[in-house]
Amino acid sequence: MSTSTPLTLSVSNASPLLALNKIYLATEGEGINLGLPEILVRLQGCAINCRYCDTPAALHIKRPALPVKDVLGQIKTIGKGLRRVSLTGGDPLAKIQRPGVIALCHLLKEQGYRINLEAHGLTPVEEAQEVYDVVDFISADFKTPSGGKVGQIDLLRSLLAKYPHKLQIKSVIMDEKDFNFVLAAYRACSPWPLNVSWILTPAYNLGEALPQKRIEQIYRWNYLSGGNFRVIVQQHKLVFGPQRDDV
Ligand code: SF4
């Protein structure tokens, strides 16, 4: 379990900084963009404190922040010809990071990059709007009870109303309580926009190689409740094993 994050990054409006965890080449392992190559930009720092955080190494800001132009330089060097960036964390929408994220997104767009944002879905939409408006795609979590934090229907409705043309919702499912929680939220947002996918990601317990039984149960709950969700197992865990976090 993670502990709360001391966000100590200082930011100058004139020269935005970013607390960077790491940048690396990856193949998208989740959701509707599964299999697409990308330059994964993982930022540092998150105060959400989910029970089963899958990126504990990115929770705390430990390294000196970098000017946005240096982060862009790293993206170009590491990405070579690739023009698809996935911004994730930690929390890329943390208030302390937002000026740097906005500046980086504008620079990337000027240079022809497509940007995918991985968001935890708990930031009020009006606070994150400047980032949401500039990115090409928003992948927002709707958190489930087993993780200790839960998604909020009003935030989900706001995202669906404002960004249905570039949005997917993702939820980690550990058990039937999680499934029923997302099903109730789905029904509360009826009619659901046809072009927005809601992805269910089967959870892994610590040390679990493949949660086959849980996957089968989720398939079944989905069949029996109207088949509203897309169930997608994280491909990177199948390929590299559940412990790797840099793929
Ligand atoms: S929002 Fe993401 S990075 Fe933050 S604690 Fe939850 S899983 Fe970890």
Word description of this protein:
37% of the residues are buried. The protein contains 7 helices and 10 strands. The strands form 2 sheets. Strands 2-3-5-6-7-8-9-10 form an 8-stranded mixed sheet, with helices on one face. Strands 1-4 form a two-stranded antiparallel sheet. The model is unreliable at 1-8 (pLDDT under 50). The chain starts with 16 loop residues before the first strand and ends in a 7-residue tail after the last helix. It is of the alpha/beta class and 247 residues long. The longest helix has 13 residues, at 98-110. Helix 1 (68-79) packs across helix 2 (98-110) and helix 2 (98-110) runs parallel beside helix 3 (125-134). The protein has helices at 68-79, 98-110, 125-134, 153-162, 176-188, 212-224, 235-240; strands spanning 17-18, 20-27, 37-43, 66-67, 84-88, 114-119, 137-141, 167-173, 197-202, 230-231. Helix content is 31%, strand content 20%. It has one domain: TIM Barrel, CATH 3.20.20. Residues 2, 46, 48-50, 53-55, 89-91, 120 line the site of iron/sulfur cluster (SF4).
